[in-house]
Amino acid sequence: MKYIQKLFAIALLTVVANANAQQVNTLYFLENAPMRHLVNPAFQPVSNGYVNFTPLGYTSLWVGNNSLTVSDLLYVDLTTGKTITALHPNGNRQALSDAFRRNTLIGSDFTTNLLGFGFRYKEAGYIHINILQHGNFGVTTPNSLYRFILNGGMKGVTDDIHQVSHIDLSSLGTANSVYTEISGGYSHKLNDQWTIGGKLKFLIGEAYVGLRSKDLGIDASLDQWDIHGNSEIALAAPINLDALPERITYEDFSAIDFNKLINTEDLSSLIKPSGYGAAIDFGFTYKPIEQVQITGSLNDLGFIYWSNSRRYAASIDSTFTGLGNYDYNNYVVDGSFSLDSLLNDVTSNLANITNAIHTNTPNSGFARMINMNFNVGVDANFCNNRVGVGVLSRTRLVDSRLYEELTLGAAFRPVNWFNLAVSYSLLENGKFSNIGAGLSFMPYDGINLTLAMDYIPTSYASVNINETPKYIIPYKAKGVNLAFGFSVVWGTNKKKDKVDTNSQLAPAPAAQPTAQATTATIVETANTPADRDINDVNELDNNSVI
Known about the structure:
This protein has helices at residues 2-14, 70-73, 93-99, 143-150, 250-254, 258-261, 339-354, 494-505, 515-525, 529-545; strands spanning 49-53, 58-65, 74-76, 83-85, 103-121, 125-142, 165-168, 173-189, 194-220, 225-236, 275-289, 292-306, 309-320, 332-333, 336-337, 358-359, 366-369, 372-382, 387-398, 401-415, 418-426, 435-441, 448-454, 460-463, 471-474, 479-490. By secondary structure, it is α+β, with helices and mostly antiparallel strands. The strands form 4 sheets. The chain has a 20-stranded antiparallel sheet that branches. Strands 3-4 form a two-stranded antiparallel sheet. A two-stranded antiparallel ribbon has the order 14-15. Helix 3 (93-99) packs antiparallel against helix 4 and helix 9 packs antiparallel against helix 10. The radius of gyration is 31 Å and the shape is globular.
């Protein structure tokens, strides 16, 4: 546990970021998965109906970042044979600094289906009703900040006391939200080529915390820091917001009376909505030829208006001394690096900075868009749809920033009730750890089990710090994205349906056929030369009657 706490602290210090997922791309290639309509509302399940509910109905989870792997933070010191962090004096801080992207992103998203069901409507249509719980968490920071810190502030960068290093913090921000979605969707097959679908979503907001920066920056030298710029902090929650301070300094927020902030005598107030909103989905599928399909969808285009909220406008234009000169050798005690001491110094300096922040009178009420996805896919199928290959392009809008991803996939459908898919995702998703896989298992009416995962870790390592037990961890993965679901389905047994259909076509033995009905029956079932002769005679009789 001590190792886990240290690793988490390192991540907080060196990898601050934002959520960048929540759609499991491998799910796109599983045709018989009932929840596939969450990727594109035009997709119709192969079953005539389904129902699922929490906790096993459908859950997806993403945790990760776009810059670092564990191998950038922890490795074996070749001189001592011990596992060290990159912040250790024997560690390679320059390699860690180079690993950061322009904007470093890390976070976590989750979705849980509280209740969902769907059914086929008049052959060409399909109706979906879902109640989903969403959570999106994360922060965004620029790489210039980390490079400055990892170089020990100005110390180690230059010995010129007058040289100034500029740190642009305009991309510094965070967006964290928890909300419930109640949606109704409909998909309609227009013809053999086109299918369209859409959803209307009613959103109930539970909580939100966000930060946006504008023209925020630091001009740092060895003797002083000049910090200037503007930011906006917004929060919403089912609490007594009047108990919050007028200013957002470290001391003011530390002095909050939580007995006034949260009504402990009426805990039911904690489930009161903090805002409401709406969103739409739209999607289509197009088959120019039977073996090729082109798909597109726009998901979660909408917003939540947070009414029980506070919005602080803050500005700072101050000069500080004694900040940013971190000599990491001073934090080594008896050969071990003391992360706690470093964090205490960083926290103390941050407290001094927040005291200089000027805050306007807070306002209430603001609107924020939810995270939006735009998907475009092309896939081809062979061997009577038993084998398929395709590509899915996903563009995600998160807090006014775009992130792109490309996933290649292959699907294997040896029988109707079993689908297997493998995928490989490109861009921002790890070092040699971008493989994904999924399966949808539906052997008979009543059961569907779906498992899908992107960015499966392929490299693991055992880590032992300060004589603590070894932990097996994914060593070169930047994140993991998975989904699983269990549904009750019906109308999937095609073999049974075929038998029932044939039995309906068989003639009733008790009925006495007419001459024309007898002739038609003999013509349909003629298989021998003798039968064909009888058909010829009956055809002459028919002609003579006519």
